[in-house]
Design brief:
The chain is of the alpha/beta class. It is about 40% helix and about 15% strand. The longest helix is centred in the middle third of the chain and has 16 residues.
């Protein structure tokens, strides 16, 4: 009864375009399932990452959706992102790994925001794939947001040595799947992957909700 009342008072909306969902729709409306900027090719490379995948390109409604999630406390979006990302991993054959982990935020950013947006997505992906999500990394230095830095070299410098492996035994000789919300220049994911590899990880792959369009690079 409570669920029915909640649905009447707050009808579910598409996480991208915010249209009200029809009874048979879940997470996305039919239009967005058909026309959202889905990533169909992962040909370009990021340093220290063996493979990567993303659901969408980071633009238009996708970008607005992720900004609402991170800055307007739409934490329910994590369930939708996690379900869709788990399906993407299965479709691309990237669901075969030893450890699922995520890019952590600093203590200060978590305190200000009230949650770790990538950890929440990781927990849903882990549930959907029936594997544990393991915290392997700690952010040891609070850094300015990468979104405010446009230069790729400056982004790499901003996160240099900002992460530390909690326990090398968790990652040694393991195939790691690293989750994040967005890949732009890849500086953050690459720095985390480098840190994991230096602690003995066999390889690191990355899965994200969205990736910035990189043209013909």
């Amino acid at each position: 009864m409570f669920h029915r009342l909640w649905t009447v008072l707050f009808p579910p909306r598409c996480i991208l375009c915010r249209r009200f969902l029809k009874k048979e729709e879940t997470d996305l409306c039919h239009h967005c399932r058909e026309h959202a900027p889905e990533v169909t090719s992962e040909k370009f490379k990021f340093s220290f990452l063996a493979r990567w995948c993303a659901i969408w390109y980071y633009k238009d409604d996708v970008r607005n959706s992720i900004l609402r999630y991170k800055f307007n406390r739409r934490q329910s979006y994590a369930d939708a992102y996690g379900r869709l990302l788990a399906m993407k991993l299965q479709r691309t054959g990237m669901d075969n790994f030893d450890v699922l982990t995520w890019v952590p935020v600093s203590f200060l950013r978590r305190w200000k925001r009230g949650f770790d947006q990538t950890e929440n997505i990781a927990l849903v992906v882990a549930r959907e794939l029936n594997v544990p999500a393991i915290r392997t990394l700690k952010k040891i230095r609070h850094t300015p947001p990468q979104s405010g830095i446009s230069n790729a070299a400056a982004r790499r410098a901003n996160v240099l040595n900002a992460y530390r492996v909690i326990d090398s035994a968790l990652v040694r000789d393991k195939s790691i799947l690293l989750l994040d919300d967005v890949l732009t220049t890849g500086a953050t994911a690459s720095e985390c992957a480098k840190t994991l590899c230096l602690s003995g990880a066999r390889e690191v792959s990355c899965a994200v909700v969205a990736v910035a369009p990189h043209g013909n690079k």
